[in-house]
């Protein structure tokens, strides 16, 4: 007997129906597999086209004149911001320096006021000597303990001259007028 006939004699009719069912299922699985592959291939093709379109859009955007101009403008603005920040920092330093100078000048002014207040003379008497003192005070000249103290209000300078008998009245007068 032939091998096919031997195999057929060994198989039962139920076995053939099982084999046929298995064969049908295998065909359906292959069809599902092919459908799935086809669907995936269509998705891949669609995504590839989208990727190409996006890449082309990016290339056209990055190489356009408007984009180049925008980049240039952004760099200019960035430089302006940097320069403005540098200017603000410089101005803050100048302001702080001016504040320190102002505080020093204010301390010096207070010191000058306290020095001047030490040299105040009584002003309730109208004797000739007090009138001379008032005139001297009005011009910024004070005489204290054989020393002439002159306050120049315009330049905020104090000059002093120790009165000595060797100085002539002419010299003292010229010194006072030069210091005022």
TrEMBL record:
Main location: nucleus
Pfam families recorded: Spc24
Entry's Gene Ontology BP terms: cell division; chromosome segregation
GO cellular component, as recorded: Ndc80 complex; nucleus
Keyword Cytoplasm attached: no
InterPro entries from the UniProt entry: Ndc80_Spc24, Spc24_Fungi_globular_sf
A Gene Ontology molecular function term of the record: microtubule binding
Subcellular location: Nucleus; Chromosome, Centromere, Kinetochore
Keywords assigned by UniProt, alphabetized: Cell cycle, Cell division, Centromere, Chromosome, Coiled coil, Kinetochore, Mitosis, Nucleus
Task performed by this protein: Acts as a component of the essential kinetochore-associated NDC80 complex, which is required for chromosome segregation and spindle checkpoint activity.
Subunit description: Component of the NDC80 complex.
Similarity-based family: Belongs to the SPC24 family.
Protein name (Swiss-Prot/TrEMBL): Kinetochore protein Spc24
């Amino acid at each position: 007997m032939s091998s096919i006939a031997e195999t057929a004699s060994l198989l039962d009719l139920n076995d053939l129906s099982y084999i046929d069912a298995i064969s049908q299922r295998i065909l359906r699985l292959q069809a599902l597999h092919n459908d799935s592959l086809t669907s995936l291939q269509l998705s891949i093709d669609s995504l590839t086209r989208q990727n190409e379109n996006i890449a082309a859009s990016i290339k056209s955007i990055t190489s356009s004149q408007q984009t180049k101009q925008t980049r240039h403008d952004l760099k200019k603005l960035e430089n302006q911001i940097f320069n403005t920040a540098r200017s603000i920092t410089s101005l803050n330093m100048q302001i702080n320096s001016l504040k320190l100078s102002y505080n020093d000048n204010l301390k010096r002014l207070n010191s000058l006021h306290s020095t001047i207040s030490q040299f105040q003379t009584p002003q309730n008497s109208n004797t000739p000597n007090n009138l001379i003192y008032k005139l001297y005070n009005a011009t910024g000249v004070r005489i204290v303990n054989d020393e002439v103290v002159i306050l120049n209000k315009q330049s905020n300078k104090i000059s002093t001259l120790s009165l000595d008998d060797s100085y002539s009245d002419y010299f003292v007068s010229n010194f006072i007028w030069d210091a005022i």
